[in-house]
Amino acid sequence: MSPLAKPLRFRGAPVRLTATSVEFGQAPQSGRAFFPGAAPSPLQIRTIRDTNPAVVLLSFRLPRTTSPGHYDGMMELGGSQTPIEIDVQARPRMRFYPSWLSLAAHPDERLEINVGALNLGNLNIPIERRSTFCLFDPRGVDVAIYQALTEEPPADQRRLDRAVEGIAESHGGLVRATVREGAGNLPPGEFRELVVELHFSDRVRPGRSYYGAWFLGESGFGIQVEGTKPSEGI
């Protein structure tokens, strides 16, 4: 097989890096990609149909924790080797254990939860000691809009104002999350048990159901909250 005019450039997240070329003519049957510090990876090779000239798509995988950046590697096709360029892109991804949580809380209550966090991406995920997220009652939003559209508002109030007031009532306030154990960067491939205190707002209303998500990086941990009344003496 004749050498390519210039090195192929593979791009993508570690789980799938791809490159295309029109220089092959007939697609090679098999090949391998060589990445610094990793075992050779088999190349997946196929021809994209109905193109002129024929376009060959090549792809391979790297360990999912491979750091983003530009790398120089080699490709072996038909018994000969040729240099390749590899651009590994960031792939932030988290998995939580449990995947979501259902709680009961009264206004201004503090609850402690345990969450397992696994970094499945190729970036450090910052676990901040203190953060906030919002709670909303989604049914309250629907009801507010429905009532604003179907009921006659007072003479001094516009329908839009009434809808906004109703939506505001469905807001369960900010939840203040404090990581008591496990704060700090979570490296790729690592698992950590987190102990988190959730401090709920006094906007939580008994009898309403709220939903929110506590985010680590770009991944959210879903939380459902049933509003309750404070116990006697609280």
Structural account:
This protein has 234 residues and is mainly β. It folds into 2 domains: 8-88, Immunoglobulin-like (Sandwich); 94-227, Sandwich (Immunoglobulin-like), CATH 2.60.40. Helices cover 10% and strands 49% of the residues. The protein has helices at 138-150, 159-169; strands spanning 8-12, 17-21, 31-34, 41-42, 44-48, 55-60, 69-77, 80-88, 94-97, 100-105, 110-119, 125-127, 130-136, 171-181, 184-186, 191-199, 209-216, 219-227. Strands 1-8-7-3-4 form a 5-stranded mixed β-sheet, with no helix packed on it. Strands 9-11-16-14-13 form a 5-stranded antiparallel β-sheet. Helix 1 (138-150) packs antiparallel against helix 2 (159-169). The longest helix has 13 residues, at 138-150. The model has no long low-confidence stretch (mean pLDDT 86).
Summarize the structure.
The chain has two helices and 18 strands. By secondary structure, the protein is mostly beta strands.
